[in-house]
Design goal:
- The structure holds two protein chains of two kinds.
- In chain A, the strands form six sheets. Chain A has a six-stranded mixed beta sheet with strand order 4-3-2-6-14-15.
- Chain A has helices at residues 2-9, 23-57, 63-70, 106-109, 118-122, 124-128, 134-143, 158-168, 199-208, 218-221, 231-241, 277-282, 286-294, 298-307, 333-340, 350-361, 397-413, 469-472, 474-488; strands spanning 71-72, 76-77, 83-89, 95-98, 147-148, 151-154, 173-179, 185-191, 250-253, 256-259, 262-265, 273-276, 365-367, 372-376, 382-385, 390-393, 427-434, 442-450, 457-463.
- Chain A is 39% helix and 19% strand.
- Chain A is α+β, with helices and mostly antiparallel strands.
- In chain B, helix 6 packs parallel to helix 8.
- Chain B starts with a helix and ends with a helix.
- In chain B, a hairpin with a 2-residue loop joins strand 1 and strand 2.
- Chain B contains 16 helices and three strands.
- Chain B is mostly helical.
- Chain B has a three-stranded antiparallel beta sheet.
- The chains are: A alpha+beta, B mainly alpha.
- Chains A and B meet through helix 2 and helix 7 of A and helix 1, helix 9, helix 12, helix 14 and helix 15 of B.
Chain lengths: 489, 440
């Protein structure tokens, strides 16, 4: 290349254009094509590095069958090593998938025949691949046996799951327990449930019956009106707009708030009298929050909603439904008042509410929730381990601290007083979400964390049609916190 | 034992392939023609090792001796080609020769894994092509009227393409081939060579604006016929070949930009006008949405690559035949699936090193006619590789062209071999000139 440069620079004796060297043009086009191929190779490398699992897991990929014909499915374990799902081989090497805890982990561990769900779906790639030693492969190969698939250890805790399940009892609803600092899902219950051992037998009934929602994981896919738990969001927006003056807020509650023809009443018509910001939140005063809602800048409010991942994809690998909450200048006042107290058109999944609560507990930073802790081969060698990772900041550290204080006061002097006076201090927000315009029909919500001063565990509960959150969801939270802290000791 | 061998050979195949690829680029340390012989012998050894391991895997996993017989035939072919060609023409370019043999070997091995019958047919075509191609360097040295029949190339090329358009058979919605005596030809492949000779002939001494416009009109006729035949891949290759050859011949950047802008405008127009172009683009943008129909091929191809990952599933252990027309348009995906993406990337790099070697030869040639031919062959060769691999990996929309030397398809392999031997012939002439000059 050096000599062609000098050739180009040297004065040309022949005026004929074609006689001049075109090395520069040739190398330029070669360079251009080189860049093209560089991009192609980077793209290919990136594709392989990031999408191998998605490719194998896609049901249109016939290679799953190939892997399954060579390996049998690995086991799924709880975090303390209890078997949650295993493949049992009989004398004829016939495989059956066994779920020792039957209904207990129905949705979160899921099933692997009739399609896949839960961890069975998430970890499918690991479960049907094998990293067993070459010696074992050779041994199995000679004996004509299949190789054992890799085993998956989850973050799930059998005891907490059991407590949550027992507490929800015969009610429909969902409970999620997560670890604040990591985003680990410790327990996830959805009722009604089913026995995955008999999924083949009950499948046709479940699928034929359109009204059946048994297969729906309510924790991540159930969309509910958030009710008063949404006041966390309204409060956050008010604090953002009035960072220095929110403490001076004052309102006189006489049981309802009127604007034109629309009216918002407090729960069971109780009037809270003179309330400040803290008390409005602790007592969950609808009238006061409708008043607050009407004062908010709607554009900024929508931005806050988007920051909190409403109308957006969640950083969640489990199947989930998207929460929705929309406010704009054109939202009618009546609807705006409803929206401020978590009624109206707003819908949220319990998992999403849990993530917002976790972010508040974690100084405003959301950790990505995850349920697969590590993958091991059949001999216990770790093949892959998953670490906690940050999704990002949902609110400032100060805002999170203010909300934590507000939520602590809910327990100390507000609607969650059934969590008061225990060996740990809890914080949270209750909700009683009315769902079919009939007074008294409400879902009981609670979302909160403990210990309030240094949060470790975050709990979100919804009990469908039970009544008020303070009466029906808070006691469940208490049992779960109790179980969590007693297990820790 | 068997499992040990199969499992370990996977890594050795990738390792030998990486070494071979590195050796290709190592030769660029030396000026063309002044290589150390040792490195090419090393390449031959590596080529042999890759072949041995691949066929060992095929035989062990398949449990079938047919692969061993075929392997013997391939070895004979490779050995004969490497020794014979360098005996007949001592000034042959060893890098291009080795790369051709390496790619042919990989191709035959992969086609035999996909369909044994097709592999045997491919083998025969490769042999016939080689015998014919061996004459080319000799003919190039003897015949001197190549520069004088410029318009004949164009007439012949357009005539051939038009014949296919009118009389050709419709395969997969495109009219690109016709049968003669039981053998199916795809004339657009052979017309590539005529087209390049036409371009070189038209532009080697006269690069006036009028001449460029005239060339553009005739080249445009080729491209339009191909687009109407729905052979979009070939149309693109012809177009790109034309733009680059004009650029190298005129040294005028305006033509290059005009070509790029014109190409963009033409693509947009084609997108608006033709359904089959729109479908390709849709299937590229979101193949998952159309996984049952338009996006089926490309998603199956992505499954293959994704499932294979870095080291592959092992020969005969994947399911590449799930991809429609895998042995022609998607052979790269099947290679990635069973031999791994590292192997696939090496394959790309071997092709790129062949291209760079062609460019190294091109800059040395003083006779503009032959220079443009070498340059044009290089551009069309590498661009075809970009189209097929880019298409199969969803980097660009699918155009359905073959991977030269590797895909199943007689016309493709024969044309590429002729192209390589045209370059060899020109290279040999260049070496002889150099010797003569050096002698003085």
């Amino acid at each position: 290349m050096e000599n062609n440069k000098s050739q180009n620079k040297s004065p040309k004796k022949t005026p004929d254009k074609k006689r001049r060297g075109n090395q520069r043009e040739i190398w330029l086009s070669a360079g251009g094509i080189g860049v093209l191929f560089l991009c192609l190779m980077i793209y290919l490398g990136h594709f392989v590095a990031t999408s191998e699992q998605d490719m194998i897991n896609n049901s249109y990929n016939s290679r799953q069958q190939i892997l399954l014909s060579r390996n049998y499915r690995g086991s799924i374990y709880s975090r303390d090593g209890e078997v949650l799902a295993e493949t049992i081989l009989n004398e004829d090497e016939e495989e059956t998938r066994n779920y020792p805890y039957k209904n207990l982990f129905a949705h979160i561990v899921g099933y692997s025949t009739q399609g896949r769900m839960g961890v069975e779906a998430l970890a499918n790639y690991y479960l049907i691949n094998t990293n067993t030693s070459l010696t074992n492969k050779v041994k199995n190969d000679t004996a004509g046996k299949k190789n054992p698939g890799d085993n998956v250890y989850t973050t799930l805790d059998v005891k907490i799951q059991q407590v949550a399940n027992d507490q929800l009892d015969i009610y429909r609803g969902a409970i999620i327990v997560t670890e604040v600092s990591t985003g680990k899902i410790i327990a996830m219950v959805s009722h009604p449930d089913f026995d995955p051992n008999s999924i083949a037998e009950i499948w046709d009934d479940l699928v034929d019956n359109d009204s059946s929602t048994v297969l729906l994981n309510r924790a991540t896919q159930g969309l509910y009106p958030p009710g008063s738990t949404f006041k966390i969001v309204t409060a956050l927006e008010y604090i953002k707009e009035n960072p220095d003056t929110y403490q001076n807020y004052s309102y006189n509650c006489n049981g309802s708030f009127r604007l034109g023809d629309s009216k918002i009443s407090c729960y069971h018509g109780s009037s809270h009298g003179q309330v400040d910001f803290k008390k409005s939140f602790a007592k969950s005063c609808n009238s006061s929050f409708a008043n607050i809602g009407m004062s908010l800048d709607r554009e900024a409010f929508q931005e806050t909603l988007n920051d909190l991942l409403f109308n957006k994809d969640l950083p969640l690998t489990l199947n989930y439904a998207k929460s929705s909450a929309l406010v704009s200048e054109s939202t009618p006042s009546a609807e705006m008042m409803q929206t401020s107290i978590g009624q109206g058109k707003t819908q949220i999944t319990p998992m999403h509410l849990n993530m917002i609560t976790c972010a508040i507990a974690n100084d405003g930073v959301l950790m990505k929730p995850y349920v697969i802790d590590r993958v091991e081969n059949d001999e216990g060698t770790v093949v892959k381990s998953f670490k906690a990772s940050e999704y990002g900041r949902l609110m400032s550290e100060d805002e999170a601290a203010i909300l934590r204080q507000l939520m602590t006061d809910v327990v100390q002097e507000g609607t969650a007083s059934k969590l008061k006076g225990l060996s740990y201090t809890a914080a949270g927000k209750t909700g009683s979400a009315e769902y079919n315009n009939v007074k008294g029909d409400s879902h009981a919500w609670f979302t909160g964390f403990a210990p309030a001063e240094d949060p470790e565990v975050c709990v979100t509960i919804i009990v469908e049609g039970a009544g008020s959150g303070g009466d029906y969801a808070v006691p469940i939270a208490r049992r779960i916190f109790d179980a969590y802290f007693s297990e820790k000791q | 034992m068997q499992e040990y061998v199969i499992e370990l050979s996977k890594y050795f195949i990738a390792f030998f392939m990486v070494l071979y690829t590195a050796s290709c680029f190592y030769t660029f340390r030396y000026p063309t023609g002044e290589h150390h012989k040792g490195i090419f012998i090393l390449q031959d050894v590596l080529m042999f090792l890759v072949q041995v391991l691949c066929f060992l895997d095929l035989s062990l996993t398949g449990g079938d001796f047919q692969y061993l017989f075929f392997f013997a035939f391939i070895l004979i072919f490779l050995f004969a080609t490497i020794t014979m060609v360098s005996l007949i023409y001592e000034n042959i370019n060893r890098l291009l020769l080795n790369n051709m043999c390496m790619l042919l070997g990989i191709g035959l091995c992969m086609v035999s894994r996909l369909s044994f019958d097709k592999a045997i047919r491919q083998y025969v075509i490769v042999l016939v092509s080689l015998i014919f191609s061996l004459l080319i360097p000799y003919l190039l040295g003897k015949i001197h009227f190549f520069k004088k029949i410029t318009w004949l190339y164009a007439t012949l090329g357009i005539a051939l393409l038009s014949t296919v358009l009118i009389l050709g058979e419709v395969t997969h919605g495109s009219k690109i081939s016709f049968s003669l005596g039981g053998i199916t030809f795809q004339p657009s492949e052979f017309v590539k060579i005529l087209f390049l000779f036409f371009l070189a002939g038209a532009l080697w001494e006269n690069v006036s604006f009028q001449r460029v416009v005239l060339t553009a009109i005739i080249a445009g006729a080729h491209v339009v016929i191909l687009v109407v035949s729905k052979d979009l891949g070939s149309a693109l290759i012809f177009f790109v070949g034309f733009v680059f050859v004009v650029f190298a011949a005129t040294r005028n950047y305006l033509y290059l930009f005009a070509g790029i802008i014109g190409g963009g405008a033409a693509s947009y127009l084609a997108y608006q006008l033709f359904d089959h172009v729109r479908i390709r683009v849709l299937a590229w943008q979101d193949p998952w949405k159309y996984i049952d129909n338009k996006g089926y091929q490309i998603t199956q191809s992505l499954f293959a690559i994704g499932s294979g990952s870095w080291f592959g599933m092992g020969l005969l252990k994947g399911n590449p035949t799930a991809i429609p027309y895998v042995e022609a348009d998607f052979i790269f995906s099947s290679i990635c699936e069973e031999l791994g993406v590292i192997f696939g990337m090496c394959l790309i790099l071997i092709c790129v090193s062949s291209f760079l070697e062609m460019m190294r030869i091109a800059v040395k040639i003083h006779d503009r006619f032959y220079q443009l031919i070498v340059y044009g062959i290089g551009i069309m060769y590498i661009f075809q590789i970009f189209l097929t691999i880019g298409g199969g990996t969803k980097f660009i929309p699918l155009t359905g062209v073959t991977l030269p030397f590797i895909s199943y398809g007689g016309s493709s392999v024969m044309t590429t071999m002729i192209m390589f031997f045209i370059i060899q012939g020109i290279y040999i002439r260049l070496q002889k000139e150099g010797e003569r000059r050096g002698g003085k």
